[in-house]
Amino acid sequence: LSLMFNNQHGYVVGASINQYLLEKSRVGRQAGGERNFHVFYYMFAGLPENMLGKFHLKTPSRHRYLASDADADAYCRSEECLEGFQSMRDCMNTVEMSVDHAMEVFQVLAGILLIGDLEFGDSDTAFISPSNVRAVDAAKALGLDAPALCRALTVSTNITRGEIITISYPPEKAADCRDATAKAIYGRLFNFIVSFINGVLASEHPSVAKCTRIGVLDIFGFENFEHNSFEQFCINLANEELQHLFNECVFQMEKEELKKEGVRTANIDYKDNLSILQLFLNKPIGMLSLLDEQSLFPKGSDQSFLGKLNDNFTKHQDFGVVKGRSQSFVVKHYAGKVSYHVDDFLDKNRDTLSENILELLKASHFALLKTLFMDEALGQASTLVRKREVSLHLNRKHSTRVQGGGNRRNKAYVHNAPASSSSGGGGGGG
What pTM, to 2 d.p., does this model score? Predict the structure, then answer.
């Protein structure tokens, strides 16, 4: 959050929000002890029964994306969940989101849950009938044609040299496509809401470029769970970069300034984590570069990525090889060792959606959903370069920009980012 102040009188003249890392994978899969994003539960707690029926929603535990939480039904009946819904509606009112507009947002969220309920059989080829009740409900919620939805999730259609080539997915691939669709819709809806809020907060001050700014960064703390994946990899990289920037501004630059002024200082020791950042960010041989390389290879796999890491960083002081058949590697972060499991690293890094699905969503009869996929500013572009620009990996350029840009000598820091060692019951930022 960037707050802009009038330089002469000191009052707030505007603000803007930037979204840097959304844990979209939580939509389709939650680790043990975690819930999905709060908003899904809030709908069941606060929307009237007739509205839930209109959206074709059942009890929370009957929807795949909420069923991993054994207490989902009880939580949605709790006073805490109802208060969460009411607080969310108050926030919508504060940013002048109309009731009709809010209901459209809830309809998209309902469509995400309904998409998640689709199943594709257990034969070699994925199949779901266009007349299947779940498919019909999901299509209605999202303004889609049910046969077209079923086909897009189960079949890949490409045109090569004027010839139409159709490949049927196995059930596992169709399920991946289903989950990728749900995550893409949620991600774009989240960006849409951020853009909506920014429209309300935008400054009309004539010299906004010259305003004093205060940047507030709300970020996951350092994370080390029982199972750490791509999300923790990105989050911990962000924390490494912030720690390095903090060290540079608070220790190194201050010491240099005092030395210039002839002030004697005690020898303050602090851990320089530059070597860890280089392990992540060096080109062409850094962990992110190798991940991008394997993501672009047709035959690249999580296992080949792990092999590349072990081949290149066995002797690196901040990297640890896990012996045996483990699909893991270790990074010795400034806050401690973290073991990362490589399953799904490449798919999460690619974060792509098939052209068939994209075209289907762009053709939706539901105006809001159509807007989400027609407006590229709301989307995560499919290229790795663009993804880096929206800070999925939070490279140094963006980490610095989050701090507010400009002259680092004029920065002041209030740091409150406790490490996370358990997932808790929250649904993170959604």
Answer: 0.80
